[in-house]
Amino acid sequence: MAQECSFTMEDLQCPVCCEVFDIPVILSCKHSFCKTCIQTHWDRMGTRQCPLCRRTERSSRPPINLALKLASDVFKKKPEQFMAKSVERCSRHNEQFKLFCRKDAELICIACTSSRSHKNHEYCPIAEAASDIMKELTNRYNPLKKQLTTFEKLKESLVELETYIQKQVAEIAAEVKQEYEKLHTILREEEAARLIVLQNERENKTAMVREKLEEVNKSIEELSGIIRYIEPIIIADDLTFLKECKEAIKRTNVSYTAHETEYPKKALIDVLQYLGSLKHGAWKRMERDVHHCKYTIVHQQESFIARVNPKI
């Protein structure tokens, strides 16, 4: 019979006396207690309330929990057939933790409910508390996971953007040199001046992107640290989870503004600034050589933005 029984040693203990059940009775709320223990509790409290969930019991003579009665009898005869579990106990009353105080976010025993430190506090069974807090932590955890994914995508785009800027500068510089070579001495000084501006803009644009990339890396590191801390807590047992959940929830109090997660504006080089009016100043002197520059780079730029700019 013991092999077929799904009860553990903890299941066979009365929540009131913390001993193996002696004639266990089951209340309408599905919690079970020793018949003598629950009657004594009701006599002392003056009301028929469940010690665990405080629900009022309709019957003054609750029925015997036959399954627990049979399992308890087997345990008393052959305790070696049950795998004994080591349970944590209250340091004040040396009783097993059965409840969770919602106000103080602490595990408590039955005796704690009437103690000064937890008197009149709201408390509930451990499994119920773990379920409720798990939902709260999950609701906080999922947005962090999404934010991390957003930052990771933004990081990939920023790395690609930096590489593209270098390529873009090289293409523009080649175009500028080609046009100025046709104008020879007349435009040498203008060519040099424009290239200097272009290089300065490259440095400014690159610095802006790298600064944004550094901010994103810090955000990713922060979110990854929080998630690494929370993940083992979520999969831990109820006792460990409830011990750590307060700190876990505290760490989830982090959010980012839309500005922190947006793609840098005006990050690319303004092609038209360097190529659009390149020959405007000398067209009268070199009328035969004046023609419109090819702006294939502009179209490449628009294509690049559409491809790498993440949808934040």
Count the DSSP helices. 7
Largest sheet at a glance?
3 strands, antiparallel
Domain unit count? 2
Distance between the termini: 60 Å
User: Mean pLDDT, nearest integer?
Assistant: 81
Look at the helices and sheets and give the structural class.
mainly alpha
The number of strands is: 5
Oligomer: single chain
Residue runs with pLDDT of under 50 for 5 or more positions = 1-5
Approximately how much helix is present in the residues? 40-55%
For the biggest β-sheet, the strand order reads: 4-3-5
Global shape: rod-shaped
Pattern of helices and strands: EEHHEEEHHHHH
Q: Which percent range describes the beta-strand content?
A: under 5%
What is the rounded Rg? 36 Å
Q: Your description of this structure?
A:
The chain has seven helices and five strands. The protein is mainly alpha-helical. The chain has two domains: 1-86, 2-Layer Sandwich (Herpes Virus-1), CATH 3.30.40; 141-308. Strands 4-3-5 form a three-stranded antiparallel sheet. A two-stranded antiparallel ribbon has the order 1-2. Strand 1 (24-26) and strand 2 form a beta hairpin. The longest helix is centred in the middle third of the chain and has 58 residues, at 126-183.
Keywords:
312 residues, mainly alpha, Herpes Virus-1, two-stranded antiparallel ribbon, disordered N terminus
Summarize the structure.
By secondary structure, the chain is mostly helical. The chain has seven helices and five strands.
Topology, please?
Elements: E1 24-26, E2 32-34, H1 35-45, H2 66-77, E3 99-101, E4 106-108, E5 123-125, H3 126-183, H4 188-234, H5 238-251, H6 271-275, H7 296-308
Antiparallel strand pairs: 1-2, 3-4, 3-5
Helix pairs in contact: 3-4, 3-5, 3-7, 4-5
